[in-house]
Specification:
Subcellular location: Nucleus
Cofactor: Mn(2+)
Shape: elongated
CATH class of one domain: Alpha Beta
Strand content: 15-25%
Family: Belongs to the MORC ATPase protein family.
CATH architecture of one domain: 2-Layer Sandwich
GO molecular function: ATP binding; ATP hydrolysis activity; endonuclease activity; RNA binding
Number of strands: 19
Distance between the termini: 99 Å
CATH topology of one domain: Heat Shock Protein 90
Structural class: alpha+beta
Main location: nucleus
Number of helices: 16
Radius of gyration: 29 Å
Largest sheet: 10 strands, mixed
Helix content: 25-40%
Strand order of the largest sheet: 1-9-8-6-5-10-4-3-13-14
Length: 553
């Protein structure tokens, strides 16, 4: 049966930063290296994969050193496209671009965002798991969702730099850079399998983004081999763009540089995708400076951990207070992917699950676990836009035993700043106070681990500091802290006396000692004193009267 041809772009593309340059084609170079050394790796072991004495091999397998070498020049010109010239993207850019992710979990979150954005296309799950590469017995990282998938044109947009088709105000992705930066931050290579139905035509595509291939063949352009199939009939029929030799060259390159040795092995990967969905396998995972995998799959069969973060503190016995702090979610999100994902999204999903290593992640709501909580409204000053932000603030349930504090700031449902401390170090004010808010009026930076430091951000920071101080003054006694004014009055013997003051002293004592025994522990007294012994309410009244008198003179 004759193979189909289509109007989709040819399979081997040169990545450029232009949104419209989807038809750029580059014939695959036939250059090959004489040999490619496969790293011998052991499953379930923390033994270094590369000896520390083998500095050259370790450098290109360690993420932060992988860009420190020369590719060389192939001298392959770009295809003639009239009088237009193209900006070439050197493979080193893939690495330098990925360095925007300082944290590996931030890269994983980017790939989860892509799956969450597919909820509006019917996605019900995304799976994150470890898989084993049969070629060299090494671990790889799998992402699999049942969203709408990508057609041949869609996967080319996904593999291109700076292209984003996400224009909705509700989608998380917006820069068109997340897939490239996140996959290259986690490993040297990624292969994508995707199925989609568009206009009644069912297709499946395979694309390989391989830093190893580009490096080992000394490419000076980012070349991405891809193949497409029409699966509208009873079997997968290749979609040929250009010549049959081009299609075969793409397939050959994918098989040589991917974990799969035959076309049949590739097609098997589509069996659990269904009619639509996407599967991403990231392999040749990065190593740390000791030559051990950065991601730890061994310590917990239901979790993925960051080895370097989890090992902080070594094997020495920790004090009880330190152990309790490290058991809190504010600390565990640093090294436990399950803990981080549990609070990654503000709103609970109704028909969508994130399944980590075979077990669904239970979403954790910080706001629901606060005690003596209250909601404070904040209206940011924005040009021609009116917005109102509800901030839930309260004490963590472990207060005052734990001094965890800070605001969890979300943007479009996605956690950007976890436990952001806005108060100064060295002060006990604000200990145990935690807040939660969604700041859609701010712009996240590209790795979505912070916000652009705009005037709106600075004003929010100032407001949150004020919010903490006001909450602390009125509520700190509820968890056992002494009210701010009482300590000074006791030390300077300025505690008020007299019949009226007896009531104030009684309330102040309750603020320090806590509510009377047998109470429901929910009394909220707000009486604080300044250095003169007057309550803050009395002082404010006097200031208002004084201000009024000035205005009437």
């Amino acid at each position: 049966m004759p193979r189909k041809t289509g109007s989709t772009p040819p399979a081997v593309v040169v990545l450029t930063s232009s949104d419209d340059d989807e038809t750029a084609v580059n014939t695959m170079s036939n250059k090959k290296t004489k040999s490619v050394t496969r790293l011998q790796e052991q499953r379930g072991s923390s033994t270094p994969i590369v000896s520390s004495s083998d500095n050259k091999a370790l450098d290109w397998r360690s993420f932060w050193k992988a860009g420190n070498f020369d590719f060389g020049l192939t001298g392959n010109p770009l295809p003639d496209d009239g009088d237009l010239e193209h900006a070439r993207v050197h493979p080193k850019f893939l690495h330098s671009n990925a360095t925007s992710h300082k944290w590996a979990f931030g890269a994983i979150a980017e790939l989860l965002d892509n799956a969450v954005d597919e909820i509006h296309n019917g996605a019900t799950f995304v799976k994150v798991d470890k898989v084993d590469i049969m070629k060299d017995n090494s671990p790889a990282l799998l992402f699999h969702d049942d969203g709408g998938g990508m057609d041949p044109a869609g996967i080319r947009k996904c593999m291109s730099l700076g292209y984003s088709s996400k224009k909705s105000n509700t989608t998380i992705g917006q820069y068109g850079n997340g897939f490239k930066t996140s996959t290259m931050r986690l490993g040297a290579d990624a292969i994508v399998f995707t199925r989609a139905v568009r206009g009644g035509i069912a297709t499946q595509s395979v694309g390989l983004l391989s830093y190893t291939f580009l490096r080992m063949t000394s490419q000076d352009d980012v070349i991405v081999p891809m193949i497409d199939f029409d699966i509208s009939g009873h079997w997968a029929e290749p979609i040929v763009n250009g010549s049959q030799d081009d299609w075969s060259s793409n397939l050959k390159t994918i098989l040589e540089w991917s974990p799969f040795s035959s076309k049949e092995d590739l097609l098997i990967q589509f069996e659990d995708i269904g009619r639509h969905g996407t599967k991403v396998i990231i392999f040749n995972l990065w190593l740390n400076d000791e030559g051990i995998y950065e991601l730890n799959f061994d310590d917990d069969d239901e979790d993925i951990r960051l080895r370097d973060e989890a090992n902080q503190g070594g094997l020495r016995k920790l004090r009880k207070s330190v152990a309790e702090l490290q058991a809190h979610i504010s600390y565990r999100i640093r090294y436990s992917l399950r803990a981080y994902i549990s609070m990654l999204y503000l709103k609970r999903f109704t028909n969508f699950n994130i399944i980590l290593r075979g077990k669904p992640v239970e979403q954790h709501s910080i706001a629901d676990n606060l005690k003596y909580s209250k909601v404070v409204k904040y209206k940011p000053q924005l040009h021609a836009v009116q917005a109102s932000v509800d901030t839930t603030i309260g004490f963590i349930k472990e207060a005052p035993a734990l001094g965890v504090c800070g605001f969890n700031v979300y943007h479009k449902n996605r956690l950007i700043l976890p436990f952001w401390k806005v108060t100064g170090d060295g002060s006990s004010k604000g200990l145990g106070v935690v807040g939660v808010l969604e700041a859609n009026f701010l712009e996240p930076v590209h790795d979505k681990q912070g916000f652009e430091r705009s005037s709106a951000f600075i004003r929010l920071e100032t407001k949150l500091k004020q919010m903490v101080m006001e909450y602390w003054k009125s509520c700190c006694h509820l968890v056992g802290y002494k009210p701010p004014g009482l300590y000074y009055l006791e030390k300077t013997n300025q505690v008020p006396i007299g019949p009226a003051a007896n009531i104030q002293n009684k309330l102040a004592k309750e603020q320090y000692d806590g509510p009377p025994e047998g109470s429901n522990n929910k009394r909220k007294t707000t009486l604080d004193f300044d250095v003169s012994g007057k309550s803050f309410v009395d002082r404010i009244c006097e200031e208002n009267i004084e201000l009024f008198m000035r205005l009437t003179v």
